[in-house]
Amino acid sequence: MISTTRFPALATGLALLGTLGASAQSAAPASLTVQVNKPGAAVNKNMYGLFFEDINFAADGGLYPELVKNKSFETDARLMGWRALGGGANLDTYAVRNEQGINNQNNSHYLRLTTRNGAGGEAGIENEGFRGMGVKQGSEYKLSFYARRGAGDVGGLTATIVGQRGETLGQVAVSGFTNEWKQYTAVLKSTGTQNKAHLKLVLSGTGTVDLDVVSLFPKDTWNQRPNGLRTDLVQLLKDMKPGFLRFPGGCIVEGRTLSERYQWKETIGDVTARLPMINRWNMEFRHRSTPDYYQSFGLGFFEYFQLSEDIGAEPLPILNVGMACQYNSGELAPMGTASTKGGPNAGETAPHNHATDDPSLDMFIQDALDLIEFANGPVSSTWGAKRAAMGHPAPFNLKMIGVGNEQWGPQYLERYVPFAKAVKAKYPNIDLVSSAGPSPDGELFDTASKRLGELKADYIDEHYYAKADWFRAHADRYDKYARGGPKIFAGEYAAQSVNTGSPENKNTWDCAISEAAFMTGLERNADVVGMASYAPLFANVDAWQWTPDLIWFDNLNSYGSPSYYVQKLYALNKGTKVLPVTMPGGAKNGTDNLFASAVTDEPTGEVVVKLVNYSTSPRPVSINLAGAKGLGKTGRAQTMASDDLQTQNSLKEPKKLAPQESTFAMKGSTLSYTLAPNSFTVLRVPAKK
After folding, report:
1. pLDDT tens track for 616-637
2. Which parts of the sequence are annotated with region: Disordered (predicted)?
């Protein structure tokens, strides 16, 4: 952090020129002009948003707070996440079966346990959770499971939340087992707080019993929903006031093969009927192999729409365009009509099957049309009725969808054309987000951008992961774009401290301040750039595959990285119209590592100036607010600064680097201010509306 001895202005919250050291006072101020009386392009009200992908245990083991891993025994015949107590010494058999399950085609497997007559000790199983189970003292957790008794006298079981030292944190007995499947529920209240507890189920009696859909779910969820989300993580999202939420990815959308693609229809309805699937990130990186990474889809498309509504963000679902990930198989759906599923006018499609599905492009198009109906259709429509049945009869007011994630080449473009044509024909007001591929330049990027421009695409999604200096060097990227073409969606970007994809990347201040510099270019080109989002969003400190990430968490705690606070400052200070900025001496923005942008915030009547000083020295600036009327005498500043560009936040120091608020004096229409070394500063000046 900045030394409060050297820079007492930050310590006192008064970032005034006169309070800084003599060296800062002697430097000649850099003169900038903000043309307050010449407002330019409107800033999209949804400009800064969120990109969610189920990577780094972002869903199961993260935002979705189910504590039991592999609760339905559908993911792995080797009982992933479970183990027999005492290594199985008290059980004759314990194995996954599929005869006469709970009568659900997507949940056919269950666990059969047979206890050993006369054996001592505990007969049962325990679940490890997602790198443990986080429980809080005094909090309640709902236990639920299905059970069926076989031969013998097993009449029930005892469920225990067990701490890391084997201590009991909560316990409840459940009885009344019969020879028919029945759901049982109980509540456990934890007597302690632990990050890595686990759940133990001990049978009462001897004989055989079948178990399925074993769940331990916190009662304290966002809006107290039974299938709700983790409160601290949602709060971090809501605090950003995001304009949109892009979901569910990311390469998750594509899958390594088409059979592993994300199919939204399998993620709605009864949670117990959602068929789990392997997560494509489980074995993608040898350095972070995660073979136990699956998707339960407890967090599905309905919950994504609901989350968007809860945090005030526009939903932006991304749909597969008939292409598996081109980094993996690159499998393509044929362009023709599916032989059994029907084309884009065939009405409701049947549920998909991961193993046997042989889809054509028309099926993917139909899925998109059905999704729009699910989100926006009346309750009298097929898919609108399904939304209503889940408890949301009002439409979600979906306004945009993504056509593919990060595809490239002629195979993508030839699929995009009929996809876009069909969606626009039925829903002309839906904006479509198209892909320019994974790179921000090169032949494939240029070809896609040119063709999508010819097709008058609504948005072109550009991605860039690069080292921090790339972001500072390319802050002028969109200064060079032609006006009047498709809007740009900067859909995935993050500065990398080492190299793209390196497991050594850190969420340093160097990365975050470089992103802040780049974002001045996004802001001043609001007539070109319509939306932007950092990626990835979440990472579990014990189970990540990719770094850097915006928000980190363990089973109990969470924190925003310095990049999180940069994103938040932009989102909370996006303004309504761009104001032209003239840099010192008419130099290019970014010269001498000084970056700036400005907006007016018409509802409040304030002028908002954003400044990045990527320098080891304080930098006094003099800002002429040309044409401003009725300026107030006191402005507000929010500053992030650190002497050490390698500064990071952590679970132990979650706000080691976060915005510091202060005030500053105004004199006429000139704003004098000294920027701290290595700083990102947002200045808000009251003016006449």
Report:
1. 999 999 999 999 988 989 999 9
2. 335-355
Grouping H, G, I as helix, E, B as strand and the rest as coil, residue 412 is: helix
Fold category of 82-218 in CATH:
Jelly Rolls (2.60.120)
- According to CATH, the topology of domain 50-65+222-572 is TIM Barrel (3.20.20)
Catalytic residues: 406
Cα(661)–Cα(657) distance, integer angstroms: 13
Amino acid residing at 350: A
Per-chain mean pLDDT for the chain? 91
Query: Which residue shows structure tokens 């009200």?
Result: 45
Query: Where exactly are the structural domains of the chain?
Result: 8-43+575-686, 50-65+222-572, 82-218
pLDDT of amino acid 630: 87
- The amino acid present at 637, given as its one-letter code, is A
DSSP letter at 605 equals T
Which amino acid type is present at position 393? P
pTM exceeds 0.70 for this model = yes
Q: Where does the pLDDT of residue 118 fall: very low under 50, low under 70, confident under 90, or very high at 90 and above?
A: low
User: Please, how many CA atoms are within 13 Å of residue 652, restricted to the half-sphere of its CB?
Assistant: 1
3-state secondary structure 171-213: EEEEECCCCCCEEEEEEEECCCCEEEEEEEEEEECCEEEEEEE
Q: In the prediction, which pLDDT does 7 show?
A: 33
Q: 217 to each of 24, 64, 71, 199, how far by Cα in Å?
A: 56, 10, 11, 12
Q: What is the pLDDT of residues 276-300, one digit of tens each?
A: 999 999 999 988 989 999 999 999 9
The CATH class that applies to domain 8-43+575-686 reads: mainly beta
Buried b (16+ CB within 10 A) or exposed e, 391-426: ebeebbebbbbbbbbbbbeebbbebbebbbebbeee
pLDDT tens sequence across 477-508:
999 999 999 999 999 999 999 999 999 999 99
